[in-house]
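Two records follow; treat each independently.
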Amino acid sequence: MRYDILGRAGGAPESAGYAWPKPWDFGAYMADKRDGFEGRDWLFTEIAAWQADGHPRALLVEAD
């Protein structure tokens, strides 16, 4: 089923001159970003210690 720009069923057929672009493959980009990634185990350890100390139920984590 085809949809128009507003998401309604029955949009213009592809023979009308428009074809939706193919989805981008971010696989190579994500693989590059994961290369050398060590994880955040240290952060989870600190959060668990913070929770164990009986702090309020709100925590703000900031990052660059």
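The next record belongs to a different protein.
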Amino acid sequence: MNTTFQSVAKEYFLFEEDFIEDNIRCIPMIVRYKLDACGIKLKLREWSRFRSVEREALASMPCVTGHDIAKYRRYLEGLIWHHTGQTATPLTPITDAPWKYGKDVPEIVRTRLDEHQSFISFLQWNGLRELQRFALIKLSSSEHEHKNFKKALVEFNLA
């Protein structure tokens, strides 16, 4: 299992507040980060079946060491099975995360920045916390709504 994920406690971003306050109806970045660490794809329809306390647990549980990651994965697999009767969908483990410290701003983020007439230097990028870099990458992907990208730039003092 990938054990290169930095220690991240439960943290929600301001740009997520509209769905965090509403019973955590969407999967927050902190959980998405941990999903990449444990190698599970969590579908929104699965997430929506979880109780609020289970969603909070997924945001709060440690997912750093190999032991943490394995425990998190087992807990999540159990939740999915309990609420859907289906097995969890595995993800390819992230072995060389583009959000790691010391890496350059990924092309996907630079492209999204160009669309917003913005720029992030190498120093600014590496001055962000790992979860912030992760969020910008996720918000830049083609599968994601881009409405929160600009909000994240403002929240991270980049715009």
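Discussion point: Residues 50 and 79 are 7 Å apart (CA to CA). How would you locate this feature using only the token line?
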